[in-house]
Amino acid sequence: MTTESLEIAKSRYQVGKAAFENGQYREAVENLEKASTLLANNTRLAGEVNIWLVNAYEAAGRSEYAIALCQKLCRHPHYETKSQAKHLVYILKAPKLKRPKEWMTEIPDFSGISDNKSKLLLTTKLQISNLKQNPVEPEYVDLSQVNTKDNRFIWVALIFVGLIISYLVWLCV
User: How many CB atoms lie within 10 A of CB 24?
Assistant: First the structure.
């Protein structure tokens, strides 16, 4: 492997990671695959690139590729890569749980709306959905249930504070 191909692989790896972190999974898969082909399979960097590629495959909906690559990485010579691959295989092969629709929040697509209109529309929709979920009803208080008797707490507290102040003055004199 030449230093030029190593530099190209590193730059593709960085571009792929950035694309993955920005949610552009197809682009991440492309860049990480190209970086992986430029590296020798038994190096630490190749293992790191392939772990990211497993995650990108899964995020892009290509679970079969992710599991196959992850099983291959379980035999990688670098210990950390092998360990991560074993954990990922366990997670990827786990059964998918069905979630009730009530647990899910639908995120509307505002890509076709200009920036200011989308903010206004999003705020309005959130306010409407909050009102539907938590309708505001006026709270009425029955005044016959309210304790309006004077319990003389204020007077007791003032006398107590006065005694403490007079005691402190007496100590200072």
Answer: 17
Question: Distance between CA 70 and CA 75 in Å, rounded?
Answer: 9
- Domains of the chain (ranges plus CATH)? 3-92 (1.25.40.10)
Structure tokens at 165: 């102040």
Percent of all residues in the chain with a pLDDT value above 70, rounded to a whole number:
80
- Residue 92, burial from CB neighbour count under 10 angstroms (0-12, 13-18, 19+): middle
> In this predicted model, what pLDDT tens digit does every residue of 14-50 receive, in sequence order?
999 999 998 889 999 999 999 999 988 889 999 999 9
Q: Give me the helices (H) in the chain, please.
A: 3-21, 25-38, 44-59, 63-73, 79-92, 115-133, 153-172
Q: Over the stretch 107-120, which tens digit does the pLDDT of each residue have?
A: 776 566 555 555 55
User: DSSP 3-state assignment of 31?
Assistant: helix
Model confidence, pTM: 0.57
Q: Which residues of 131-146 are buried (b: 16+ CB within 10 A; e: fewer)?
A: eeeeeeeeeeeeeeee
Residues 6 or more apart whose CB falls under 8 angstroms from that of 47 comprise 73, 76, 78, 80, 81, 82
pLDDT tens digit sequence for 101-156: 888 787 776 566 555 555 555 566 666 655 555 555 667 777 777 776 777 788 88
